[in-house]
């Protein structure tokens, strides 16, 4: 396969249809159809499943995709090296749980775009594990380190969590002096059968009972706690933006977890490599900044309450 064939392949894979790919490639759909058919004959296998809804990659197409993207990235890096321009160009999809996606990644990704205006960034914020083998994302942030699949995994940073509740809820409820007191309180947490990562099963660790109010989303849980729904576990990096919350049993309960960054072993090249470094550095710095802010904010709120 030559680069022009792979350029056609990438255009159709990203566009999802001949009509969409034709816009970027500046070729008519009939020409693209012939080129794809010729490419599949040369490869000896079907690369796309064709249907009235468009073109979807087959298993062979998914296997070819990272190699084609690698050639594209290397070609762009060569042009950049000749011109002395080290700005990143291309598009990267990042998958992340909704907690970090809502409270940490906006600042990180905006900074990356400011430094590299031609870098497109897609943030998929879903409370589940991403399938990197099927290219649901180029980079994925997880809590537990994935162990299955052909993945490259690196530890990003630790982060802290606290038990917290709204100040009005605590003022109207019985005191919480020990973990045993939690049995008399409303609990907010994850829907038990929708916990997608064992490291997110906090309530047993803190000694709380089953949640009366539950969600599969960390951001929704924060909203429920802020609305006075009860006591729940909150990321410390969220507390900086929630001055109405109070830590519960702060001297007794200290939860720590870690974020990990994963990518498929075939997802390489200068673009992904550099983007992964920028993302890792940005996440570490932003988590540290927000956690530092959360403690003084809470202490000031306590003094004023």
Automatic annotation (TrEMBL):
Residues 1-58 form the HTH lysR-type domain. It comes from the Bacteria. Pfam families: HTH_1 (PF00126), LysR_substrate (PF03466). GO terms for molecular function: DNA binding; DNA-binding transcription factor activity. Keywords: DNA-binding, Transcription, Transcription regulation. InterPro entries: LTTR, LysR_HTH_N, LysR_subst-bd, WH-like_DNA-bd_sf, WH_DNA-bd_sf. The keyword DNA-binding applies. Belongs to the LysR transcriptional regulatory family. This is Transcriptional regulator, LysR family. It comes from Jannaschia helgolandensis.
């Amino acid at each position: 396969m030559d680069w022009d064939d792979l350029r056609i392949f990438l255009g159709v894979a990203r566009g999802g249809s001949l009509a969409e790919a034709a816009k970027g490639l500046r070729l008519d759909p009939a020409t693209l159809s012939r080129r794809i058919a010729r490419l599949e004959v040369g490869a000896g296998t079907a690369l796309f499943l064709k249907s009235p809804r468009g073109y979807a990659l087959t298993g062979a197409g998914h296997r070819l995709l990272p190699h084609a993207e690698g050639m594209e990235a290397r070609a762009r890096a060569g042009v950049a090296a000749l011109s002395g321009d080290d700005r990143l160009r291309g598009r990267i999809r990042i998958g992340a749980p909704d907690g970090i996606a809502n409270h940490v990644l906006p600042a990180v990704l905006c900074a990356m775009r400011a430094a590299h205006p031609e870098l497109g960034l897609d943030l998929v914020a879903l409370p589940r594990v991403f399938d990197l083998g099927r290219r649901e994302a180029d980079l994925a942030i997880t809590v537990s380190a994935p162990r299955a699949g052909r993945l490259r995994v690196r530890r990003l940073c630790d982060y802290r969590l606290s038990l917290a509740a709204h100040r009005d809820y605590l003022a109207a409820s019985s005191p919480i002096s020990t973990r045993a007191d939690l049995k008399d309180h409303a609990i907010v947490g994850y829907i038990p059968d929708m916990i997608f990562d064992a490291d997110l099963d906090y309530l047993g660790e803190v000694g709380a009972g089953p949640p009366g109010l539950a969600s599969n989303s960390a951001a929704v849980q924060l909203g429920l706690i802020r609305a006075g729904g009860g006591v729940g576990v909150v990321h410390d990096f969220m507390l900086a933006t929630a001055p109405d919350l109070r830590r519960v049993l702060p001297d007794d309960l200290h939860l720590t977890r870690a974020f990990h960054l994963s990518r498929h072993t075939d997802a390489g090249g200068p673009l992904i490599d550099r983007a992964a470094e920028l993302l890792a550095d940005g996440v570490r710095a932003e988590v540290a900044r927000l956690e530092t802010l959360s403690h003084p904010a809470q202490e000031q709120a306590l003094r004023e309450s």
